[in-house]
From TrEMBL:
Enzyme Commission code: 3.4.21.107
Primary location group: periplasm
Stored NCBIfam families: degP_htrA_DO
GO biological process: proteolysis
Keywords: Hydrolase, Periplasm, Protease, Repeat, Serine protease, Signal, Stress response
Annotated region (Disordered), positions in chain: 377-397
Location relative to the cell: Periplasm
Domain PDZ: 273-364, 370-450
Protein name as annotated: Probable periplasmic serine endoprotease DegP-like
Amino acid sequence: MPDLSKTLMRRAGAAALAAVLAAAPMAILATGPAVAAAGPPSVADLASQLIDSVVNISTTQTVGGGGDDGPAPQMPQLPPGTPFEDFFNEFFKNRKGEAPRPHKTSSLGSGFIVDASGIIVTNNHVIDGADDIEVNFNDGTKLSAKLIGRDKKVDLAVLKVEPTKPLKAVKFADSDKTRVGDWVLAIGNPFGLGGTVTLGIVSANNRDINSGPYDNYIQTDAAINRGNSGGPLFDMDGNVVGINTAIISPTGGSIGIGFSVPASTAAPVVDQLRKYGETRRGWLGVKIQQVTDDIAESLGMDQAKGALVAGVDDKGPAKPAGLAPGDVILKFDGKNIREMRDLPRIVADTPVDKEVEVVILRNGQEITKTVRIQRLDEGETPQKANAQPVEPEKPPVTKALGLEMSGITKEMRDKYKLADDAKGVVVTSVENGSPADDKQIKAGDVIVQVGQQVVNSPADVSARLDDLKKNGTKQALLLLSNGQGELRFVALALQ
């Protein structure tokens, strides 16, 4: 301290030294013992009430035995000169060509009781392929379980055990009311250690991790590890707000990024699996895509929202209701569609045969249509029409927006492997670095509509683009079809 004072005196004089010395006691106080910050209240009582409702699920599966069951055993990689090198060489030499012997593997997961009669919920991937399923309870009881039903799309399964006494069940919460920052409690069986409790908060809602068509996960920093799969995520009222399903981790251990299927998604699926042994989802019969900023601009929308209809199934309920490509679905059954991925989940949860109102944006106006929802056939494949269009006679090639276009001739159908019923204008080349190239338009794509009007020739495309420019439109909305007939919308800036 004396050396510091002399230095300051030389540089800034006595006033500077006085200021430093006056601040010194504050600095000393700041380095003293800190007052302990109050943490969250203990969750011991809550955990003790819930832990008997959480179970460990153990499965066994037979693998190997030749054929497609698994690869033949391979010689392990050993350092040259190791004492065991000769032994393993001889062992694998004698077994060369021998099929792998059948053997059993086991895995562990978690689950929870939703009905005292013995109904248990877990993840589908916990029991997938299992020959035997055993449920281990907190009091040490072990019971064999029967699979009631499962749903791969949301990774859920429902099991049934036959208890000798009533079990302690828990209820689903209204996860739609869950807010970022809410405390949550995870109970599971990480790494086979047994019942383990971890505490954290909701980090985010409505996460899409590209695991299925109905992704809307709750993200939490409550520690979730291997073996926690299928276990419950509780709110502070002791109700199940989510089902722990996945983590992001480079090591396989928790790094504070875990994902749970929300109760609002899980509960209807569980009810259907219990009632029918399968899911019975609603079906609208449309192909949709995201409304991007440039697409919204081309449609005259103030902001990007809703789900853009790119195609309508001929056999689906949307077609007789009057929905068409280019419509933007803004509301479905009274629920706002903020973005594309909201719609499939809401439609799937809609009861079959229910009549619902669908609010769409068409040509700048909101229109309400009534649709009777049908049941989704998960194995259904779209059928192609048999109509044979009249072949145009050698239409000229036209250039616009970085595209070279031609009418659809037999030569073009053969060259780009277009469907027999393909109609529109085929793209024959795309200028490198053009906006069309940036939007991944390729030779062989077919332009079906421009500015929500059907085009049948390159001349139609040019005329429609001219009309859009005259009207002051900055983005041209193109409806494209690939060789397989799959539709998508692309917005290109008019130059």
